[in-house]
Amino acid sequence: MKYLLLFAFSAALFALEEGSFVQYQEAEEAAKKKEIEQSYQYPLLKEIDGTTEEKTLTLQQRVVDYFGTFVTSSPYPGVRATLDGNDLMSNLSNINKDLKILLELSQSSAFLRKEKIPFPTHPRIFMSGEIEFTGFVQKDGAGHPRSDLNLTDAELDFLIVMAPWIYGFVALEYEDSVDPALSTSRVANSRIKGESIFVTMGDLSSAPWYATFGQTYLPFGQYTTYDAVHSPLTEILFRTIARNVALGFYNDLFHVVGYVYKGDSYVGSGNNVNSYGMSIGCHFTSGQFSGKVAAGAVRNIADSIGMQGVFGDPRNREKLHKVVPGANAHVNLSYGNWNLIGEYNQALRPFDERDATFSTNRTSFKGARPRAFDVELAYAFNIYKRSSSIAFAYSRSFQSLGFNVPRERMTLTWAYHLFRGNLLSVELNSDKLYSNRCRAGGNSVRGNPYFINPSYLGHRDYTLSVDYLIYF
Fold first, then answer.
1. Higher pLDDT among residues 101 and 245, named by residue
2. How far is Cα 359 from Cα 365, in angstroms, rounded to an integer?
3. CATH: 2.60.40.10, 2.40.50.100, 2.40.50.140, 2.40.160.10. Which one for 68-471?
4. In CA terms, which of 25, 34, 39, 134 is 20 to 30 Å from 183?
């Protein structure tokens, strides 16, 4: 009887100890799970707040992070992605967008490895985009008043992440330009077109190399600007979009990228991959000071969007008498709330006189050698605890009258973040046209465009614009 009582007491004691240990294990697992939930948020969705003060994961985030099959809106890899770290730019550069997205994704891959979280096995789709509406009043070069209200931009972006080292990107953009051959109605001319559409392979958290193929803005220049409505003359003249293959290298100090493509303009038969280019730069950060300096070259500047307005005209047929290479240098420096941007582009030799000419006296013409620079200074500050900035930009072109651009452009822009994803900008712009003694020849723009019209040459215009941009 004594042994029976001892056995019963011991069994109860062991049961109590076992139960306590099981409870301890369950409590420990619950604590670990809660700790993970409170600390882990997918880096691309880091701005999505949880439902409680502890920022626990929402149902959407659980699905995103652990199951992987989802479609979600995220402005970070799309239209608002920028290496310059300033979301108050109304016009963010589309150059090196593949690298910008790759840097975002490499952060998420590094985080998953650090936390030993398996990478989602299913494709993930991020959506982003923007809608932009602009109103302006203007006093043109002849002193005549003008005004307008216009839907100036709309874009829908899709980022498809297949694996840690491969993703695709598709940008669909609304086009608001008027084609008189179709209709003089802006609404009737509205259409959707593919803009940047490409595939990138690489994982910068594992290796510094990456490759991109598809349709992208070539990494010739940067064209970062605070201007809300009027683009800098460097961008208008030299920015180029093409279907290309690019190979890049990026680490903590250097960025190098080379690319090949088949340009629209050509010399000879025009049936080959006939153009190429390269860019090299460095970036650095030290305390409040950060910067980026880069330079590049391209074989043929006639493929740029601005020059295709001339050479791409059906009457001109794209065939050149000689190729004109170009060079670019740009710098972006930030210190505290200040940001300085500078860029310079130029043709390395003149165009053939049968392709594009320029005259300063209306009589003697020579081959045009376009070049341009842009300088911008911005200061960021808060108004009622919301981000704001004010920026001044000065842009200048040379021997570029034939491409329908002004001689100089000055812009003062104030931007204000009304709410998350809502940016209001007020811009005062003044364009100084080329002298009334200047003329352009060779291939020409159809009609009598504004900047080339002799009745406006030698004058200055003034435009006040209000621009409202929402992005998601």
1. 245
2. 5
3. 2.40.160.10
4. 134
